[in-house]
Design brief:
single chain, about 110 residues, alpha+beta, four-stranded mixed β-sheet, 4 strands, about 45% helix, globular
Length: about 110
Amino acid sequence: FTMFLSLYANELDYKSVMEKIGKEGMVLELGASTCKACKEMKIVIDELKKTNTTLPVHIVDIRENRDAIERFKIQMIPTQVVLDKSGKEVYRHIGGLSSEEMLRLVEISKK
């Protein structure tokens, strides 16, 4: 459990991710380290990043970064928010996803 928490996005990661908005398309995985489905999504993302280290999927822990709740209008977790290169939200999904589904969201972010 402690190891998982240390791997979940921290404040520094959150700030650097926020700086990338509007510069590149991305998928934000918004959740919490205490949420079972969020932990499962982290495993999916980690597996995908083993084969593609530059995959534009960023995990944001909303309990550590509470302003993300309002900024991205989070009502349930996990929520995936797809942002295009201009920083505009182009798609949103609530709940868990498979690796294939996550890769489809990445493709949407590139359009």
